[in-house]
Amino acid sequence: MSEFKLTTVEEFEAATARLLETGAKVGADAWQFRVKNQTPHCKFGEEGVCCRICTMGPCRITKKAPRGICGCDVHGIVGRNYLKFTAGGSATHSDHGREICHTLYESAADGCYKVKDPDKLIRIAKEWGIETEGKDIYDLAHEVAETGLMEYGKPFGTQRFLKRAPESQQELWEKNELAPRAIDREVSCSLHMSHMGCSSKPEALVKQAIRAGLSDGWGGSMMGTEFSDVLFGTPKPIETEANLGVMVEDNVNIVVHGHDPSLSEMICEFADDPEMIAYAKEQGAKGITVSGVCCTSNEVAMRRGIPMAGNFLQQENVVLTGACEAIVVDVQCIFPALGPLSKCFHTKFITTSPIAQMPDSEFIRFDAHTAGEKAKLIVRTAIENFKNRKPELVHIPQLKQKATVGYSTEAIVKALDGVTNSQVDELGTTKPLLECITSGVLRGAVAMVGCNNPRVRPDLAHIELMKKLVANDIIIIASGCSAQAAAKAGLMDKRAKDVCGAGLKRVCELADIPPVLHMGSCVDISRMLVLAATLAKDAGLHISQLPVVGCAPEWMSEKAVSIGNYVIGSGIDTFLGVDPYACGSSEMVEILTNGTKEWVEAAFTVEKDIEKLGDAMIAKIEEKRAALGI
Length: 630
Ligand code: XCC
Ligand code: SF4
What we know:
single chain, 630 residues, alpha/beta, Substrate Binding Domain Of Dnak, Chain:A, Domain 2, Rossmann fold, six-stranded parallel beta sheet, 16 strands, globular, binds FE(4)-NI(1)-S(4) cluster, binds iron/sulfur cluster, peroxidase activity, iron, Prismane-like_sf, iron-sulfur
């Protein structure tokens, strides 16, 4: 085995610089240049003090003009903007969840989509009080899917999955009117509250932001995760690789990008088809390589070991390799830049969802009924494009790392059972993990999530923070582009145990895990909620008492704000490296960083200095340990 060494951000950057040289040859634009054109950013926008929700404005708050034309002050404006931002994220995650519910509804024994994890389906049905006895599994799938879909619009009651939380958490939600009702209602209500002439009281706006966030985390996202598992299998540890070097020069390269696994699962299926591989060979390639970007990539990495070409800010790089026959996208986080960029190369930019339609793309509409034939068409299109490559433009940076991924909550519980000899019941027990934490072998856990962002040096905060935390015996669970940053660096290689403190290293050896556990895509942050809830229940604690914090050091999207709201809303202190356009209001800052503790026992910390951010997380974890007397 070759010697193990983490890849540095400098190495990522050198690879990117080389790709930008290719770009320059063909006149390609890239985000690196657009950032320059957009700098300096609008100060009013950055501080969240610009309001354009009615045409009396736009109004921007300054010393000279402390109120908008309607009389709204800065706190109301920042608060409304914050709530709208959250609603956008909650809607997006939840609509993804809804699509998955529909896919589950369309599943059939002879259909494109089948039930791969019937046990999980039955477990959820029982949890929801749906009769399972003697039912055909597809009848049950339809019934569960329909019940799930009702969660979006039911007139009465709150989200079913809230029952998974410890009682203490549920009480807090009830008491503070934070328990999310129908998902669509929370999104609509947020838009209603932030309409001209409705709420301008920051407390009310933040409370609703938390409720809308919770409807995402414990509603839309959780259904997205659970039903994806039912359809495509609950992830188990699996080997894969990460970074651009996973693309293979001699093969047809298909890159999947976006979030909904329904598309990418099918693409992977057909890329494996011997008939397709033979066709690729006929066209002069040696085979077919599917790799991924963003959360679609995380989904197929977790379940199939499909390699991860990169995270968010690497999406242009895959095209710049000159070796990408097709970049196939579904929804979310897709740069519209991919259209014009693909035109500079032979790459086909294929959009598939009516929700994400873009200029300069080929639209091959994907739906549950025709998924098979459409996937086949896409794979075939990519294969036939191989011959159009311009060999002089081909350069794939030879950077990649091995990664063990696939750590669903179920898989983590199972893996950690190797550490002690506790009995495991059907679902496993978190006792061994709790013992590691109580004894101090592990000091705690950090959920590292979210995007990378040109506002900071991309990937640096993710990687540096993880290195610092694992060296301090803090285990990391990661998702989204943060997980991919870790994988690219090598932190998901089991050999990364050597950069850990002695306690975590021992746990990694005994349980045979890497120190950073890949929990999946961003909707899979719901897995983290379930894990935290289970740990708290098993320990007889509030979630807020666990030595666990969340961190999104480079986040950028509306979805990330929704996530932040549901993570603090679930009692987990959350550390951000990018300000959510809230710093223009002292009252909003106070509520978000302190005031929310009164309702949910957790709050945000915003800190742009990476060292200080890491220190603050460690201090928080130690503070929680001290409070527990461990
Ligand atoms: Fe998108 Fe989920 Fe952010 Fe990555 S981490 S840039 S939201 S892909 Ni969710
Ligand atoms: Fe200006 Fe008030 Fe209209 Fe906002 S709602 S644009 S602050 S007048």
